[in-house]
Fold this sequence. Notes:
Chain A is an alpha/beta fold. Chain A has helices at about 35-50, 65-75, 95-105, 125-135, 190-195, 245-260; strands spanning about 1-5, 10, 15-20, 25, 30-35, 55-60, 80-85, 110-115, 140-150, 155-160, 165-170, 175-180, 200-205, 225-230, 240-245.
Amino acid sequence: MNIIVLIKEVPDMEKVKFDSERGVVDRSSAPAEINPFDESALQAALDLKERYGAFVRVLTMGPPQAKESLGDAFARGADDGILLTDRKFGGSDTIATSRTLAAAIEQETYDLILCGEKSVDGDTAQVGAETAELLGIPHAYYVDSIELADEGRVRVTIENLCGNRQQRTMKLPALVGVTKNIGKLRLPSVSRKLESITKEFKTIGLENLPALSKEDTGFPGSPTKVAKIEVPSVEERESQIFREDSNAFESKLEEIFTERGIIS
Amino acid sequence: MKYNNITPQLVQNLQEAIGGDYVITGKERIEAYLFDEVEKTYRPEAAYDSIVVKPKDTAEVSQIMKLSDQYQVPVIVRGGATGLAGGCTPVVDSIIISMERMNQIEEIDAENMVAVLQAGVTLMDLLEELEHYQRLSFPVHPGDEGAQMGGMAVTNAGGARAVRHGVMRKHILGVEAVLPNGEVLLLGGKLIKNNAGYNLTQLLLGSEGTLAVITKIILKIFPKDQASATIVAPFAGIKDACHAVTDILQSGYTPLAVEYMDKRLFVDTAEMMGLKWQAQEGSADLLIILSERTQAQLYDAVKAIHEICERNNCLECLYAGKEKEQEELLLVRSQHYELIKDEICDSFDMAVPVSHVSDFILNLKKLVKEYDTDTNIVAHIADGNVHNDILYLPDGTIPAYADELKHKMYELCASYDGTVTGEHGIGKIRTQELSDLKKPAELELMKGIKKVFDPKGLMNPGTLFEVE
Amino acid sequence: MNITQHEPQNNNEYRGVLIIGETERGNMHRVAYELLNKGRGIADACGENLSCLVLSTENSGCEELCKRGADQVYLMKSPVFAAPEEVLFASNITAFIREKKPAVVLIGATHFGRSLAPRIAAALETGLTADCTDLRIDEEGNLEQIRPAFSDNILAHIKTINRPQMATVRYKEFREALPDENADIRIQEIPPYIAEYPDVTIEKIISIGDMDITDAEVVVAGGRGIKRQEDLALLWELAQVLGGQVGVSRALVDAGMASSNIQIGYSGSRVKPKVYIACGISGAPQHLAGMKESDLIIAINNDPSAPIFAVSDYGFIGDLYEIVPRLTERFRKKGGCHEV
């Protein structure tokens, strides 16, 4: 089985600082890492590899330094990685990103595509499903378990779809977006980590993707345009703070809860 | 020594000195200010008729000391109360000076790489402040960031990172201190070299609040390392693990910390936290924490240390490079206490020369077998500092052999030329051990020094030496 | 790859606002009523129609959509819509949109909506803006889609140059449109364009109960201040007497003490209850993103400098282990309004 894991390099969102005057994220303020949801996708792929045998290839689109994340994935057991990088990919919105990914994926052999349910920086959760649509394959999101089924199908369980868990089978190739519950990325061995430092990965630019024209990707290929960035004013509430005197605090809550019909 | 009780007149004078809001009386209200983190069973008995005061600056501390001197009522200084030796528990009725309001970071002098801090600044406050400077940090970390700098100074705190950075006394260039008679002294300064007379700064460090009140600290700060990683190195047995440690120390690739804990503590603590300990094989795991200036230097160190571990027959080592992964490993290391705290009735802080640490640990395990019990071992292993414990009987009572076993453990430690306390200090729970450990001449010198600073014996009575 | 090069679009052919209604266990998901409220405003601003498309096995709640502001409801009725599946739903909605050419398509950002909308957008080769917090029409009649980004540090105003302009909106972001009993009921039943998709077989539907924290009126949430998993029981007791649910910050999920189902924050659920009680939560931006819209925020923390106090209406500086049981005791005596 050939598995492709889509990973995105994101800044550590707990650390990253924000320049509110310029309305931009200061990416130098936090280390880049694999999107935590994609880490779970990678672990799911490694688990499938362990269970059924598979060739696991990670694919990422980003600046040249995103190869660090490919190295990290390799250290943890991925067999290979591909870096999609080109200035002409810059400014891609989700549909332009999906077209670019789909064009690259079409050049590879694949049975299963895995990704995280969303990225922590963009939080749109669109690229997986859009890529599946462009590839003409089925997809499922919010998946917390995957196994192979008969007749070239994959069986997945979706945590919550319209208020229910759902178990379905999908014909391969298919795309599966996983939740963190599917598994936590395990540590690499030191030897494999050291090996990954010098590992080279295939780099693909626009000229390596004949199916894609420059109007399909990057800024020109993006139908959504950011018209304006605004820094929201933080809504400060009139805080009434109690210390030590817990009775006064309790009474206040009782009064306000009664007023609002929370207690009778 | 005759101490006086706390009279309404003293209370009134204290209120006048520092303001009524900051003088706390009444058993119920002061109870929160009586203890540190010593196990309940081994806590010193607290004097409940004490009083708590919260001065805002050095001048107020000085006034409090003058009142203590005038009324002949002892003084206990309370910092973050993260200590493990009963140091901040009053055993006679005392004025407890709680330093929490003296939490000003007075200066971060990046040019001289020095911070000037009021004693009540917590380690957390300091680390947060240094975050703003990006390139600065402070390495000593006793585990609990609620610890205050004053407390860390007078207890000469250690912690895991001593392998690379040593203990607190290495980093303090000077202090402001208030003597028991209320006089304020400024000792040392922002000087790297300072050879004028006896080094009284160093004398106060580790004095556990028995000589003077430290109100301000001039602290060395450090450039921040840019790359770090934690290696989990499992070994089949502790001998190989310890041999790897001494080889690593000789190699020059000095880790920030090397931590050891019984395998079952790693495995069960991880499980308690809903995690899985990933080093499945082996019976002796080391956490080797590395911190280097650059990523390239880090990988060099990882490679070298990994080779050393392999030469010492390690099993497959794991690599945690991401901060979250490293934090999680450390959290398993520090949360083990939650797992065992209800099982232990006494715990220890012995230290031996690092070459003897594997024998020491193996013999401790052997010793407790004679009593048909166990002991949990957690160690800052590259410092030779071993924390182990005595367990309750299965029915939850303190075993009759507890005292005997403790002394056998100490004898074992002494046979390796060890010490009864590596980092926690004597406090009020190891005074007997101190007098057993030291020669009479050394003890007399210590007591003489105490008398010079504190002729009336008002500073933290019962600490280091029994109350006479 | 299905990249089809379309003729340049004529944006003027696209008119009106379309809302996709989602049914959940036979009932209309209430996010549709919220979309109707916003959609009505947009349609009126353009002087155009507001319609709804519902894919269902039955006529579930279509009348209510009319009462709450839809000029026209299309019910695509078929047994194949018994259980949600993205390809079948998306291809039918796509075909419908190609035929009707709405200028604006709004979809609730439920799990299914978030999974479905991108397929439709990709098939239509148009833009999609996720999780909008506001929508408005600019002077040229374009849809301005406003969404927070980077943990709510910025608000991006996004426009789509293609048609339709598609957006998803989180549940509880807008107020519901109110029903008007005298409204015209215009429901048109239409057959599906595509009635089967053999590549996906739904094998099992398992009910997960009504555990949805986003519906709770009271949320008692715990963070780093909770030392052990068992201690969450303290919060459950308080939540029970107040008829609420327990939520947690990411710290507890990361520590393995709670399931991500009840995680509140940027990467968890966003809640907007009547009362939010944050216990031992410092208030990292990641968490605030998920709860700061609550009607009433109460914070309990022993750190007076915790940022949570800045967004709270009432705060108590002290030990949650003492105060929470006291609150439980006090409100238990009062008796909550809710059966527990």
